[in-house]
# Entry
Amino acid sequence: MSTENTAPPSYWYSDSTDDERGARIMEAMRAYRAAEMTMRRRTQSSMAMGENELLVLRFLTRAVGDGRDITPVDLARHLGVSTASMTALLDRLERSGHLERRPHPSDRRKILVAATAHADEEMRETLASMHARMMQATRGMTESETAAVTAFLQRMRCAVADVCEAAGRPCCALMSPHAGAPGIRPADDVASPSAA
# Structure
């Protein structure tokens, strides 16, 4: 009885043990991303919003937690859209009661934007049970498991977003996992419209 793998070779990966393990990880990540995209569509439908509207509300919610004031220009940079497109998006969110604009306290030329209490409440109601399930999935992990998963995801983010190349550094995703990935910025620093 032969134990030889009869499956055709993968287009992307070699027959090495490392690539076999990597392929399993990539498949698990694809399945996770598909589930996350399904959740995002449900959330968009539930809140009657598009992806960018949800990204704006998430960014504003985090900014409040960090004590930062946000302008329309900050949001346009975060999403990688024009200021005209951002103005139209903010107009929609303001009409729906999810956003408010107010004058900057020290610079009359600037406008600040913030999510309303209604937006915060709606987001919490919509996402609370999903966030609780996600946190439950992380419980019980050891510190070394947490460090390994976090470092791996940072390397993958770096590889996908090309943040090292943009900064003129060698790709940290190609570094030894034990060497660490110096210079990787927190996820919020990398404009990623897929973040929720």
